[in-house]
Amino acid sequence: MLGRATGGDEAVFAELFAAHRRELHRHCYRMLGSVTDADDLVQETMIAAWRGWADFAGRSSARAAVRASSTSEPT
Questions:
Q1: Domains detected in the chain
Q2: Cα 11 from Cα 18, distance rounded (Å)
Q3: Model confidence pLDDT, tens digit, residues 8-49
């Protein structure tokens, strides 16, 4: 599944991202203290992750990669 997601399969990427969305939202909320800002950051993280997904080398879990992307996104 991960290979298909890194290969550009949008449906598989969306499925992987959806599996981590709730946890990512909690992470973003803890960083920002605002539900609205957390919603925005989750959306920005998804866009950034999709754009950089082809470069994902698989040295970490998809969960770790998405979470790291949220932390590095400007607020």
A1: 2-72 (1.10.1740.10)
A2: 10
A3: 667 877 887 888 899 989 999 999 999 999 999 999 988 887
